[in-house]
Design brief:
Radius of gyration: 18 Å
CATH topology of the largest domain: Glutathione S-transferase Yfyf (Class Pi), Chain A, domain 2
Distance between the termini: 27 Å
Oligomer: single chain
Strand content: 5-15%
Structural class: alpha+beta
Bound molecules: glutathione
Number of domains: 2
Number of strands: 4
Shape: globular
Mean pLDDT: 95
CATH class of the largest domain: Mainly Alpha
Number of helices: 12
CATH architecture of the largest domain: Up-down Bundle
Largest sheet: 4 strands, mixed
Order of helices and strands: EHEHEEHHHHHHHHHH
Helix content: 55-70%
Low-confidence stretches: none
């Protein structure tokens, strides 16, 4: 009998979205266990992972990283869509792009988004508490200020670092835009792969795509400064590509 996996998340987290998207696309049964930031440590460590989410708990082991989760799904659930191409050279290309987005895009889109979101009490609580239940829900609102302090310190979020991260995001968007300039439908090969999924999921904090797997702030609630950034990224070739991946493949 197929067991239902447990996916431990901070629901709006874009690395969690990467894993959730792959699970949804493959039709693999799982139960999402949602926690707000900092409070998630107890569950991620308790399940056998580390301090970050996503953590996927399966009957064949615990996967504490989004890329490991995609690799695992590729090897264990290969009857429909496959995140990685069969052909070795294409697979290598997909893995290189995934690594680039994991390390050079994800941390920077997150810093840019949190730099704005941590200042907006209602938006922050609404995003972080979606799907969160019980004592974590009531305690998180009370603990908001120390949690924000820990998040700013842990992710080194301040005006100067957010400005530098914005430049890093623009660079990766430009690289992706150049790659797409010949009209190719996907980043690698002729079909949707882990490279496209990872780019679209990790770009999400600055694109706010429809069909994201957790509620994101709506445009009408954003500050004019953040709204202008979202518009900039949405209308870029790479941002349009991310939105198309969501529309057609999420
Ligand atoms: N390499 C990891 C990165 C995951 C990650 O950075 N997750 C963030 C949420 S977006 C997290 O759990 N941060 C909590 C912390 O560092 O305490 C992956 O791909 O899964």
């Amino acid at each position: 009998m197929e067991t239902t996996y447990r996916l431990i998340t901070i629901p709006p987290s874009h690395y969690c979205e990467k894993a959730r998207w792959a699970l949804d696309r493959l039709g693999v049964p799982y139960r999402e266990e949602s926690h707000p930031p900092v409070f998630h440590w107890r569950s991620s460590r308790g399940a056998g992972g580390g301090r970050t989410v996503p953590v996927l708990v399966t009957d064949r082991g615990v996967l504490p990283d989004s890329t490991e989760i995609l690799q695992f799904l590729d090897s264990q659930h290969a009857d429909g869509w496959r995140p990685y191409p069969e052909e070795a050279a294409l697979r290598e290309e997909v893995e290189e792009l995934e690594e680039l987005f994991d390390t050079r895009l994800g941390p920077h889109t997150r810093r840019v988004a949190y730099h704005h979101l941590l200042r907006e009490k209602r938006l922050f609580l609404d995003s972080m508490l979606h799907g969160v239940e019980g004592w974590e829900r009531s305690s998180f609102s009370v603990m908001r200020l120390p949690v924000c302090w820990l998040m700013r310190r842990g992710m080194r979020i301040n005006s100067a670092s957010a400005e530098r991260s914005l430049e890093r995001v623009r660079e990766v968007f430009a690289t992706v835009g150049e790659r797409l300039a010949d009209g190719r439908p996907f980043l690698v090969g002729e079909s949707f792969t882990a490279a496209d999924l990872t780019f679209a999921a990790l770009a999400a904090p600055v694109v706010l795509p429809r069909d994201y797997g957790a509620p994101l702030p709506s445009l009408t609630d954003l500050s004019p400064e953040l709204l202008a950034l979202i518009e900039e990224f949405r209308t870029s070739p790479a941002g349009a590509f991310a939105q198309r991946m969501y529309r057609d493949h999420r």
